[in-house]
Every structure is written in C-alpha cells, then in structure tokens.
Specification:
Blueprint (H helix, E strand, L loop, with lengths): L3 H4 L2 E6 L5 H16 L6 E3 L7 E9 L6 H5 L3 E9 L1 E2 L11 E2 L7 H9 L3 E5 L8 E2 L2 E2 H6 L9 E14 L2 E8 L5 H11 L4 E11 L2 E2 L6 H9 L2
Length: 229
C-alpha cells in the first residue's frame, strides 16, 4: 500500500501566533518521518505567514508539493486590526513604536473613503522588515542592522477592503487581495492617507482560493490523526 503522504496530501493548518511557517512545516515533516520511518519526504507550504499572524497555512506533502505554485497564485483573504495614531519600523508589532500621530481629526467617513481608494491595482512598497531578497540578503537582516534595504515596488491588487471603526483608533478589517500583498504596508499606507500613522496589530489569514481556515486543524490535531492510522 502506498503511503498517502508520499502520494501527496494537502493539509490545512491553523497556524498559531509566534510560530514561523518554517516551524509548522518542520513539525509536520518530522511527525511523518517518525510515523512512517522515512529518511526523506517532501513537505512544503503554499505561502508564508509572518510569526505574528495566525490562520490558514497550506502544507503540501509528496507529489502534492508540485501544486504549491498554483495554490500560491490564488486570491487571499485576511482579517485583523490596524491601529491608528502610531507607526513602527516593521509596520507591525515586531518592532517598538517609533512615532506618534494625532487622530482627533479622523472621522468614520474619512476611514471608509480612504479604504475604498485602496481597491484596485497599485504599486506597493514592501516593508523594510520583510523576507524580500536583495543581492542574496533578506531585507529584514539589512533593516535590523539599521540600514535601508533597496526595495522595489510590486504590482498588487486589492479586491475588497471592509473596515469597522467601532473600536477607533483600532480599525477592524477584512481584505481580499492578490498574491504578494503586504497587509502591513496597507496598515502603514492607510495611516498616511489619513494624515496620521498606522501599524498592524493583529492579522489572520482566513482564505486562500477555495481553501478556508474554518476547515483547518491545529498541528496537535494533525499529530493526533497520525496516531490513529
């Protein structure tokens, strides 16, 4: 009987806070090697999630790793919180607040109007603290040395940007976007558009194409499922 994981499986994981996508892949890989006494098995993920983000991480095994690129190309949906009135160098909570801005002038209508203007195609600048490679070096490694990475804009698409202002200056949001979109950059750019500052304080990936986080399991549940095989 063929090993189903070598034949290929798509595993939907609900990534917890503070885990890297690499952590999740390695844990799944180790569990499979241990369960089936394997020296090698292909395991990869279809789209990185930052350590400070939770939600849908698609892990492919065996022959299904060939589908990773096609999964990555699909639309993404995110929910989370943007906090107005302050910025951080990383555009999220990875780094400390570096500047405060007024928010008294901002109205609900201003926020809703600003969000609408993000919908469509745009050239987005990735955060300095991103995994983009510049001459073989990660941008975040350059930024952590206090240097400015030479990043270039990338063409992205925003299909939906819904905002809830009931907890102002925290803005709850839902965004549908193309591959390669940095939600942290949207947080920063939204603050700028409102003549204030903004940074991402919560992020959860809820969908990738037809895949939904509601159908995902936590890694521990995956380990438990192997015990029953």
């Amino acid at each position: 009987m063929e090993n189903p994981y070598i034949e290929g499986q798509v595993i939907l994981i609900d990534k917890p806070l503070d885990w890297t996508s690499f952590n999740a892949v390695q844990k799944v890989k180790y569990a499979l090697q241990k369960k089936y006494s394997l020296k090698k098995i292909k395991v990869g993920h279809a789209g990185t999630l930052d350590p400070l983000a939770t939600g849908l991480l698609i892990i492919c095994t065996g022959k299904k790793t060939k589908t990773i690129e096609s999964i990555q190309e699909q639309e993404k949906e995110y929910t989370g919180v943007i906090t107005l009135g302050a910025t951080t160098p990383s555009f999220d909570l990875e780094t400390e607040i570096d500047e405060h801005f007024p928010t008294d002038h901002i109205t609900k209508e201003m926020i809703e109007d600003a969000a609408k203007k993000f919908i469509g195609e745009m050239d987005q600048m990735p955060p300095d603290f991103s995994a983009k490679k510049i001459d073989g070096k990660r941008a975040y490694d350059i930024a952590r040395k206090g240097e400015k990475p030479a990043l270039k804009t990338k063409r992205i698409s925003i299909y939906a940007f819904d905002v809830d202002t009931s907890e102002f200056p925290k803005i709850r949001f839902r965004i549908e976007c193309s591959k390669g979109t940095y939600i942290r950059s949207i947080a920063y750019d939204l603050g700028k558009a409102l003549q204030s500052g903004g940074h991402l304080t919560q992020l959860r990936r809820t969908k990738i194409g037809e895949y939904n986080v509601n159908d995902a399991i936590v890694v521990e549940e995956f380990f438990d499922s192997l015990e029953t095989i």
